[in-house]
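Bench log. Compound arrived from synthesis this morning; before running ITC I wanted a structural hypothesis for how pyridoxal-5'-phosphate sits in the protein. Inputs:
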Amino acid sequence: MDIASRLKEIRSSLPEGVELLAVSKTHTAEAIREAYDAGQRLFGENKVQEMVAKHAQLPEDIEWHFIGHVQRNKIRQMAPFVSVIQGIDSFESLQETDRQAGINGRCITCLLQLHIAVEESKFGFRPEDCIRMLEQGEWRSLSHISIGGVMGMASMTDDMEQVAHEFTVLADCFRLIRERFFREDERFHIISAGMSGDYETAIKAGSSMVRIGTGIFGERDYTNK
Ligand SMILES: *Cc1c(COP(=O)(O)O)cnc(C)c1O
C-alpha cells in the first residue's frame, strides 16, 4: 500500500473529533508531500533541525507539531513557524516559548507532556508537578502561548491492559486540570495520545489526537538519513 492509501484507511477508522498527526520524522520531504497531496496537513517531527529543513521545502499551510524533547536553546529556531509544541515539561520551556513567539509576533500552542509510563524517563511532568506549576499561576501572564491540552506516551509493552490504564490516567489528569485551571478556556481541549501500535486503545480512553508514523509512512530507517 502507498502512503495515500494507508492514510485513507487510518482516517476512515478514526471516530469524529479525533485528529490525526502524521509523524514524519526520518522520512523525506517527498514522502510528506505525498501525504500532503492526499489531504494531510498536520505533521509531527522530533528533531528541530530536521523540522526546520522540511518546513523550508514544503507548503506553508502545513501545521508543524514538535513532538520531541524540548531543549530550551532550540525553541528560537522553530518559533517562526511551529504550530504546536507537544513536549512541554517545565515552566521554563513555556516561558521561553512565550518569549520566542512574542519576538515573532505569534502565539504558539503548547501541550503539557505528562509522564504516565512505568519506565523511568527524564521527560514529562509528573502529574503532581504539573499541577503545582499551574497552581503557581505565573503561566497566566504568558500572552504568546496558549496551553492546548496534554500529551503522553504509554509504556513500551505488549500488555494492553497496562497501556489502557496509562491512557486512562492521562485522560483523568486532563479532566482534572481542565476543571481546575481551564474551565473558561476552550483552547484547552487536546489529549494527544496513541501511536501506530496503541492508538485504538488510546482512543477508547479518550484521546483526541493520535500521532501515527509507521502506520502511514512505513518503518523508519534511522541509519540512512
Ligand atoms: C515517533 C513518535 C510517534 C509515532 O510512532 P509510530 O510508532 O511510528 O506511530 C508518536 N509520538 C512520538 C512522541 C514519537 O516520537
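What the model suggests: The pocket of pyridoxal-5'-phosphate is lined by residues 23, 25, 46, 67, 153, 195-197, 211-215 (CB under 6 Å). The radius of gyration is 17 Å.
ITC booked for Thursday regardless.
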